[in-house]
Structure formats: C-alpha cells, structure tokens
Amino acid sequence: MKKLLMLQPIRVYKRWPMPDDFTGLLGNSPTLAFAQLKGALQGYDCEFMDGLAGDYTLAELTRRARAADAVLINAHSSIGALNSEFSVRHILENAPGKPIIMGGHHATAYDFEWLGRGAHFVVRNEGEETIVELLAAIAKGGPYKDIKGLSWRDGEHNFHRNPGRDLIKDLDSLPMPDWTIYDPKLYYLPLASQGYSTTAETSRGCIHRCRFCAASEMWSHTQRFKSPERVLEELRMVKRLGFNKIWFSDDNFGADPERYMKIYEGMIREDMNLRFASFLRCDTVTRSPEAMKLAYRAGLRGALLGIETPVNRILKDFAKANTHETTVKAVEILRGVGAFIAGFMMVGYLDETQEETDLTFRASDELTDYPIISIFEPRMGTADFARAKLDMPGGDMFYHNTVKFIPSKLHILDQYRNFYRNYMMHPKQLRKLLFGTPVQKDWYRTMYWNMARSVLSATPAKAAHPWDMVRVVYK
Ligand code: B12
Ligand code: SF4
Fold it and tell me: First CA to last CA across the chain, in angstroms?
C-alpha cells in the first residue's frame, strides 16, 4: 500500500446548465486538501490529478488508477457530485479491486450514499489522522471498526459509521502541506500579478451559525487558528516553490484582527510580495479598518465578501449576525483601501418575496466590483435543509439542481439569467475591463476569456445536461 492516486474528479460534464455553477469561470486554485493529506502521508508515493483544472482522458484515469494501490477521491459539493460518481464507477469497472476512499464536504454529508454508489471508505470531516490509520489498516486487511471518523462497508450492503473523531486541537501540529503535488501551470487567480497561484489556510471553520451554511457545520461551528509564526512559515515555503498568488481557504478569514495583524506585519517585513484573496465577513472588516489597511499592504487584493442580501429581515432570518448597514460600511472600508470586492449574494431564500429578490439584484452593482450570486440551495446537514424539505419533492440535494428540486424557485431562474446577461454586456463592466483598476481588468479579462473558451470548446458530450446523465445512469 505505497502508491496513491489522489483525484479531483474528471469533468465528464463541464457544469450544470445553471448560472450559479461557476466551475471554471472565475479563475481557479486547487483544493488544499490533497497537499495537506500528502503532508500527513509520509513515505507514500502520491500523485495528483486535478480534473477540475486539467484536461485528462478516461484512458489516463484508468492507467493511473491501475498503477496505484488505492484511489483517494474528493467529493466537494453537489455541483461536482455527479463527476465524482462517474470517477467512482469508472475505477470500479476499469481498475477493479482498488480501494476507493472518499472525503471532503459532500462525502462527509452523504457518507452512506457514497458507499451505496461504490466507494469502499468515506473519511468524514478532518482527514489527516483518519487517512493514516485507514491506509495502515487496509494494508493489513482490516479491522476498520476502531478507526474514528470513518464510514465503511463490508460487502455490498453492510454499511458502518464509526464514531466521529475529535478535531485536531492545535493546527500548528499538522504536518506542513506539500504543495509540490500541484502543477502550478494549471491554476490562475485574477489578482493582477505575474506568477503562480495556489491555496493555503490560516484557520479552519467558523463559529457563526448561518442557517444555510454547510462549511461551519463541517467543523462543528468552531474556528481553530494556526499561529502567525506557522502561517508565515507556510507562506515562505509557498513563495520558495514559486507561487505568489494565494487563495486563503479559511471560511472566516481575519476573524481575530490582532492575530492577523501579526501575519500581515510579517508579510510586509519580509517583503513577501504576495497577492491574496480571502473570504471575509462584513463585521470582520468593520471591526478593524486598520487591519484591512495593513492587509492591503500585505497583499490583499480580492475581498470575497459575505454580503448575501441587503434585506435585514432575511439577514436576521438566516442568522447572519450582520445588518445591511454593516455591509455598506464594510464596502466603504474595502473600497477605501483599494481591494476588489467579489460579493457573495443569494436569492430565492425560503420565503423571500419577489420584491426582496429584486432588491438583492439591484443592490449587487453598488455593493460589489463583481457579484457572485447563488440561488439558495438547501445543503444537507444545514439548519435550512430541514426547513426546506417540504419544498423539495423527491430531492435530497445529493446532485445540484435547485430549480428542478424546488419548483417554487423556477421563476427566479429567468430573472437570474437576464440579470447576468445584462450585467456582463453592460458598458460599465466593459469599462472595468478596459480602464479599471489592475484587479478589475484582470478579473473581467479572466471571466470573459473563460466564458468564450467554454463556448468555443463545447462539444455535444461536454455540453450534455448533467440531469440527463443522472437519468441515463439511473434509468
Ligand atoms: C478551493 C475551493 C474551490 C476550488 C477548488 C475545488 C477543488 N475541490 O479542487 C474551486 C474554485 C474549483 C471551487 C469550486 C467550487 N466550490 Co469550492 N471551495 C474551495 C475552498 C475555498 C477551499 C477548499 C480547501 O482547500 N479547504 C482546505 C482543506 C484543508 O479542507 P477540506 O477541503 O475540507 O479538506 C479536509 C477534509 O475535508 C478532508 N478531505 C477533503 N477531501 C478529501 C479526500 C479524501 C480522499 C480524504 C481521505 C479526505 C479529504 O481532509 C482535508 C484535511 O482535513 C472551500 C472552502 C473551505 N474552507 O474548505 C470551498 C467549498 C468547498 N466550495 C464550495 C462550493 C459550493 C463550490 C462550488 C459549488 C461553487 C460554485 N457555485 O460553482 C464549486 C464546485 C466545483 C465542482 N465542480 O466541484 C463549498 C462546498 C459547500 C458544500 N457542502 O457543498 C465550500 C465549503 C465553500 C463554502 N463555504 O460554501 N472550490
Ligand atoms: S459566516 Fe460564513 S462561514 Fe460562517 S456560518 Fe456564516 S456563511 Fe458560514
């Protein structure tokens, strides 16, 4: 059990024919999961195929799976679930006998569903310790029953869910991620800087309890931080490997301003010259405008801001613990320091009225440099999944297709499509492309280019509607 294939599933379908599947449109950076797991798997020979970023054939997947002793697959979201499932099926058929181990947000929420679809093991939640114990057990032929955080099957239909594993107390005790598994040429973050892009983390989780959010649930509503010294050590390593654009994966970046100011100061002192983007809550920004100024000097160029909606009633309903007034202030501060604001917004929330949906679309231009709007999707494991259930005839949201599952949201789809069509063609956006700030230019150039590439490279197979594929698979 020495050679491992780490797989971000190959894209058999490119994206759902829904505008809120942004796969491949907004720039690209790898999941940190496999660098982190490889760091934990000392002595193993690991290779990584990133099907979201590279162009691989199924024949290549067959070859690499046959050469490996086990295949580790990431299942990240409902949007990608069908591609993960194709990979599982392909490996079962073409490299039979290879243990298939899954992990990630989606696999954690749907462990038994993945076992039912052919995976042999699902590593739930945090992976670093469980995977080491699991591979050692597989090499000996078991037993698996004492491995915490593991779901597994014996035979076709005997599924087991072992008790959960405690979260690692001190993130500094994690082995250093091994970024050498990524092919730097495959990734691009539009942060107006030359050089390679990758993903890093300074913390895990978030203490807030927004009812729609699966990320906070994944880490039991806690946030653990790496020390500033550890973060700087990682950044030095990333820099040495030739990366100079970072996407921080943290769900709640900057949550503890004093700790982060030490990181920013270190980055400035060591003249790291990195550019980075990170997920920020509005109240993180308003709590410490000084930290934001320092963050900009350290390299913050992309603020991925959790705005959601300008409607206070809805912000309260989903327990965002923020108000529209905080959003406006955060936007002002970020504009003041010069960061590009990619604002996460959501329409179609549970009992949202048409007037409230209109307000969100209308406010998006003023609050952002680019709005990343989703149609509300009740995710398994969230408080809203239970609340939305009655509205989802037959849907467990394993696959992504909000509108199919939630007919009452159908009317939003047209409005959504029209919004983006007009938005992308509007002279205002073209002005940003031609005369905007360096990040505005880079962001819009990347988006228009990816959209054009996606249209030009469309083949009937790639353009196939994933929902039709589900039907074929389960006819
Ligand atoms: C980088 C990233 C991306 C990148 C790369 C994705 C990839 N998988 O290669 C890109 C830009 C492509 C992307 C796209 C999308 N993403 Co994304 N992404 C992230 C982000 C910011 C960081 C991931 C990361 O590196 N985390 C750090 C690592 C260390 O944590 P981890 O991934 O959880 O991994 C640990 C465990 O889960 C486990 N593990 C993970 N995988 C595996 C595999 C095995 C075999 C094992 C044993 C263990 C294991 O071990 C790891 C170490 O403990 C996360 C947010 C986050 N904080 O995680 C969102 C996140 C995962 N993405 C999310 C979403 C919704 C999307 C999109 C659907 C967005 C969209 N609307 O288009 C698409 C879907 C793409 C697709 N077709 O699958 C959601 C998923 C929520 C959910 N439950 O569905 C998240 C949580 C963001 C959020 N807060 O909503 N994404
Ligand atoms: S603040 Fe963000 S990460 Fe935290 S619970 Fe809310 S949506 Fe999730």
Answer: 37
